[in-house]
Amino acid sequence: MKNPRFYGLPHAEFRPSQCDAIQKISALHESGGGIIFVDSPVGTGKSGIATALGHFDTVTVMTSTLELLAQYEKIYGFTAIRGRQWYPCVYNKKIDKWNGQYAPTAFDCHFSKMHECPAASECPYLEAKYAVIGARRSVMTYRYGALSSSIAKRPGFLVFDECDTAVREIVAHAETLIDNAEIHQLFNIPAHGVFKANSQDCTKSGKIPANVANFLFCFLFVNSVAVE
């Protein structure tokens, strides 16, 4: 293989096993794709492997922490995006409404389609979003990636960094609401209001046997969460 800098890495020599991993993953990609796990200790260059893959195709990296995201951004030159709350709102009417008492962010945007905001062309969040969608190497958290349809459409490599945390991070945002009619249809019991199921608890309005509530949560979990 050529010098690491040729593949976008910020150092002149490969670390042990990096070449082997890059070659195997790129070969799998060329043959049609698949799933491969890279298991190695901290400091052996896993982030560098993800970076080098950008030489062959677009790379989307998902991380569990903002610290790791920042590492990809600052050390390896990835284009990064964070949650909307990290980007200030630039819509003057929104800013004036709070009169200095609160600094609104993109999270506070009241437009269902953010590009319809009069200040959309100057929106820091939208600028970051469009940049990360079009970049050769992009990085975001699992929570952001799991909720973004635009990220789901990106071709190329999808890298789950610290993949043992992926399910926990993604399921933390999974939530399902079931109304009266659906409860009756699923369990053939009188409806008891709206049930709310997520990864932390199963709450309800009204009373329902514990075994039914537990089954409800398990049913929703198994049927609504898939990770590919």
Task: Describe it.
With 228 residues, this protein is α/β, with parallel strands linked by helices. It has 2 domains: 4-81 and 134-171, no CATH class; 175-224, no CATH class. 39% of the residues lie in helices and 12% in strands. The protein contains 10 helices and 7 strands. The chain has a 4-stranded parallel sheet, with helices on both faces. Strands 5-6-7 form a 3-stranded antiparallel sheet. Residues 191-228 have low confidence and may be disordered.
Task: Compose a concise summary of this entry.
By secondary structure, the protein is of the alpha/beta class.
Topology:
Elements (H helix, E strand, L loop, with lengths): L17 H13 L15 H7 L6 E5 L2 H11 L2 E2 L11 H7 L25 H11 L2 E5 H6 L1 H4 L4 E4 L5 H6 L3 E4 L1 H8 L7 E4 L3 E3 L5 H15 L4
Parallel strand pairs: 1-3, 1-4, 2-3
Antiparallel strand pairs: 5-6, 6-7
Helix pairs in contact: 1-2
Please name the defining characteristics of this protein:
228 residues, alpha/beta, 2 domains, four-stranded parallel beta sheet, three-stranded antiparallel beta sheet
